[in-house]
Amino acid sequence: MFPPINEQMDLIKRGAVEIIPEEDLVRKLERSAKSKKPLRVKLGCDPSRPDLHLGHSVVLRKLRQFQDLGHQAILIIGDFTGMIGDPSGRSKTRPPLSLEDTRRNGQTYFEQATRILSAQKIQMLYNSEWLGKMSFSDVILLASKYTIARMLERDDFTERHKGGEPIGIHEFLYPLAQAMDSVAVQADVELGGTDQKFNLLVGRDIQRENSMEPQVILTMPILPGTDGVEKMSKSLDNYIGISDPPKEIYGKTLSIPDSLIYTFFELTTNVSNVELKKIKEVLSSGSQNPRDVKRRLARVLVGMYHSDDAARQAEAEFDRVFVQKDLPDEIEEYVFEEKNGVENLIGLLSVTKLASSKSEARRLIDQGGVSVDGVRVDDVNAPVPAAESFVLKVGKRKFLKITRRS
After folding, report:
1. What is the pTM of this model?
2. Same domain as 60, residue 104
3. Is the bond preceding 95 in cis, omega lying within 30 degrees of 0?
4. Could you tell me what percentage of the chain is helix, strand and coil, using 3-state DSSP and rounding each to the nearest 5?
5. What tens digit of pLDDT does each residue of 312-341 get?
6. How far is it, in rounded angstroms, from Cα 357 to Cα 381?
7. Are residue 386 and residue 302 in the same domain, yes or no?
8. φ, ψ for residue 277, nearest 5 deg
9. I want to staple 105 with a disulfide (CB 3.0 to 4.6 A). Which of 50, 135, 300, 323 is the partner?
């Protein structure tokens, strides 16, 4: 039913930062093989944002690997804990969400996550099912299991406390509530990013307090964004969405720094360990232009989330637009009316949403990131062109055909 333990461990350890404790995981796998009973592998999802990107895919792919090995994947949508707000990595209290918001985001999360996970081999639960039923006396009993001193061992709490930044009592309850998820589903293993390590360890402690065998925790790296500096985040606009169109996934992938090519192959693709070794050797030796290896990565990612044919088309269009300097086959059109009061390009960039604001539009022009019909715009006060139609380009991948109507 299950592959040999060494084969399972090879796959499980791929890309992992820590397995705590690793010997317990081996023991659990051995017991699982003997009893023919799959491990219960838990992943909790924060439904504060409904759009998933490759950064989210790192831990989701690890859960998929457990599925492929024959184990039971448990995806917990934190609709109840989402109303508290995960304090991990936060310098301020996170605004709470309504149960309606977390439920809606959670459903969208599941729909996107099953582009990675096998929907037939997963148990999806909302943690309001058990947390919402706890009485106030239950919460007091749970809170008595942990001390403030232990909570302040958490780096982000410590920094906020030292800096005089308020910490809500409800934030201390977040890791305890997440720990109760592990108790409720009797998790054998819990997955998370390195920023979740504290929460996952609390889960082990609370399981012990409930006379359960503690879960093994496995942490995965935080994937850097396309800028190669900050973690991948939609708010930082350095993300590659798993639902992005093929040309977006392809183009954004080619924008990552060469230093991240191997990391992306390891953490975001299904390339075998043998192939990974070859990729590392090629990149280290300089025997192949990193750009060509990156193009392969872009094709692989588009193929995973769309199709191989879509990957070939995305690459062909990228070459036509950025190598041969032609225009894309399809460009969205915007009808510009004289009466709308827009007098200059800054205003046009703002109303067409090519820039989020007039100040961003000014910055884009200052940085040379705006062109009209292939000619870069240098004047921040440039008027809207008098031509009946023209193509406005922002950055490397945003095109918009402007058609004038008086």
Report:
1. 0.77
2. yes
3. no
4. 50, 15, 35
5. 999 998 888 777 666 666 778 778 776 566
6. 15
7. no
8. -60, -40
9. 50
CA distance 398 to 406: 25
Of 319, 345, 331, nearest to 398 by C-alpha is: 331
Are the C-beta atoms of residues 397 and 326 closer than 8 Å to each other? no
Give yes or no: residues 13 and 117 share one domain. yes
Range of the domain at 57: 5-220
Which of 204, 178, 145 lies closest to 46 in space, CA to CA?
178
| C-alpha span between 174 and 303 (Å, rounded) | 38
| 190 contacts 200 by C-beta, under 8 angstroms | yes
Q: Determine, yes or no, domain membership for 89.
A: yes
Which two three-digit tokens encode residue 345?
Answer: 């390009």
What is the rounded distance in angstroms from the CA atom of residue 152 to the CA atom of residue 159?
A: 9
Asked whether residue 131 falls in the same domain as residue 214, the answer is yes
Adjacent-strand bridge partners of 45: 77
Residue 84's CB is within 10 A of a number of other CB atoms, namely 22
pLDDT digits (tens, 9 = 90+) for 182-219: 999 999 999 999 999 999 999 999 999 999 999 999 99
- β-pairing, 122-126 with 72-77? parallel
* Furthest C-alpha separation in the chain: 77
Q: What does the block give as tokens for 241?
A: 């969405």
- Cα 403 to its chain centre, rounded Å, is 37
Domain for residue 178, yes or no? yes
In a domain, residue 236? The reply is: no
Gap between the Cα atoms of 50 and 31, Å rounded:
37
In the sheet where 40-45 sits, what is the strand order?
18-20, 216-220, 189-193, 40-45, 72-77, 122-126
- Three-class SS state of 245: coil
Contact (Cβ atoms closer than 8 angstroms) between residue 63 and residue 191: yes
Joined tokens for residue 15: 């890309």
- Lookup: tokens for 41: 């592998």
- Mean pLDDT, contiguous 10-residue spans, the chain (406 residues): 93 96 97 97 83 94 96 93 66 62 80 90 92 95 89 80 82 92 97 94 95 97 94 89 93 94 96 93 91 95 96 90 68 73 80 84 85 76 75 80 73
For Cα atoms 24, 29, 30, give the angle at the middle one, nearest 5 degrees. Answer: 95
Contact 153, 180 (CB under 8 A): no
